[in-house]
Amino acid sequence: MARTFERALRRAGVPMAYSQGFSPHPKVSWVGAAPTGVASEAEYVEIQVVRELDPEALRRELDAALPPGLDVLEAVTGGPGSLAERIEASLWRVELPGVEPAELAEAVRRLLAAERVDVERLTKDGRRTLDARAAVVSAEVVTESTGDTSRGTGGTSRTAHILDTSDQVEPAALADANGLVTDSDQESGEATAQVADWPERARPCGILVAVVRQTTPAVRPDDVLSALRVVADLVPPVPAKATRMAQGRLDDSGVLGTLVDPLAADRAASPTTTPSGVDDPAVR
């Protein structure tokens, strides 16, 4: 995606700033880029240009230069400090077809009750062990069933089971933000065929909504699923679908797991139109 974005910058004629040296590169910085194999509705990229631009014009030109499926939702002129300093966690939505919500809720309860849950990840340097529990700030299990219009839209109702590290989160505090796609390392087999044969309306689907702190190394959605397997032997019969719905700084003053918009301060400070002639602004 990074190469596609850089090609779009060239097509759109964005006056990029370049690094020094024998092989100059445009100054583009992806902040907390999503792992391979997942979908995202909230990716942030910081670019440096040689003069200030109208953010909306930049957004429009870049969006037109990108292929279908990659959309620039907003561009903002950056203020002091880096964008990376304002992003501490991500909000993930993970759908697990074939998993009963009650079973998922119990697995999440066990995960949050544990002080530490070690999982293994295969890297280019071999297997690595990391504590998945330490990164999970809060979690919520949501069930969606068709045919009940008491809540939601389009004939969809939602029942929330709130689980968090302090048992103080209000119902539905996290779920209203979400949507994703993560590849799980569990294969389908006979259980997959059984789930696929179920009528769509009758197929259970547990949905996990979790706020995960950005750590080093990063804890990914598949690591959280591995942790659920460790604590509760939860193995989805088909691959899970994960989507990152938001990124931001954790708001310690509100509901546990609330994320603060990382661009809020820049958006408030930006004029409706931007003057030209200033070197090296950061446009996000």
Notes on the protein architecture:
It comes from Streptoalloteichus hindustanus. InterPro entries: DUF2344. This is Radical SAM-linked protein. Residues 1-143 form the DUF2344 domain. This protein has 284 residues and is α+β, with helices and mostly antiparallel strands. It has two domains: 2-85 and 262-283, no CATH class; 88-260, no CATH class. 21% of the residues lie in helices and 26% in strands. Strands 2, 4, 7, 8, 9, 10 and 11 form a seven-stranded mixed sheet that branches. Strands 1-3-12 form a three-stranded antiparallel sheet, with no helix packed on it. A hairpin with a 2-residue loop joins strand 5 and strand 6.
What features would you highlight for this structure?
single chain; 284 residues; alpha+beta; seven-stranded mixed beta sheet; three-stranded antiparallel beta sheet; 6 helices; 12 strands; elongated; disordered C terminus; DUF2344
